[in-house]
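ugh ok fine here u go
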Amino acid sequence: MGKCMEGSVQKLMAVGNLEREEFAEFLRFRNIETTEYLYEKACEIRRRVKKDRIQVWGRIPISSFCKYDCKMCGIRRDNRFAKRYRMEMGLIMECCREFAGKGVRSFLLESGDDAYYTQQRVEEIVKTIQEEYPDSRIILSLGEKTAEAYKSWFDAGVSSYILRHGSANEIHFRRLFPSNMSLLLRKQCLWQLKEIGYKAGTGFLVGIPYQSIDNVLEDMQFMKSFEASIVDVGAFVPARHTEFERERSGNGDMALYLMAVFRLMLPQAEIIASPTLDCVLKEGRTKAFLAGADVVVVDLAEAAVMESYNVYERKNGRFALPLDNLEEMITQIESMGLSVW
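structure:
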């Protein structure tokens, strides 16, 4: 039996942070007793703040083109094996209709950093979705854009934008991303989004190569100081034809542990259970709700599109994961005593 770090959990609940050495110990020496107590408190906060309501976001991957050559990403620019596509308006609307038919009205439009999707094109997409689904919520994750573009999309009706910072440590950032990417620019974009009025989200991958506990602490302190409205912390999953394709996947249990910590650090934040969790943990997204998550991202049923959008390998061990069954997932969530909206 391990010693429960009850005092650290209670301090996190009270002040939303810990001293650096205390935090390092909290991450390094996690055990079953501390984890269970932390999860209990994370769910307690979600119950109080979110009324135990789980949001479902339908992910629409609108493009597999990207101008960057990030070392972990399957759709990186120089991956000549990647299948490239761009969704036209008709297909985007078909995806929205499929999700809406199943009761999902939050649409996450995601892509590589693709210059094809200009300020005007994205604005047209947003307005078209808004016309057909005026009660919908549109979340964008399209990379680094200009403040003018961000403002235009916000005015058109986009409420939220996700831009993972990747790593808040300059040296670690350089080991993951190409030389034409800038951590300073990424942070600047995030602050612009917040200033415009977006619910701005950021995050990092747990277990990505070269990551240390100190790196994770730096990431967490950046997200705390930024007061992220959306927490997007996933487990690293290697993708084929990348520099990291032979690396081990990230630790799913640690990803859940960090989600629970973020629930205590940022009680109002929307914490995402993303599909990558299912690649490293059986029923990983479902387990995320036990750690205080309140958003689940679900994928399309269009196999051809998902096979082309290979940001990571959709596998659990040696087996390819099936495409999402939304009805089954909602039933699972409700069986946990949670409500879906």
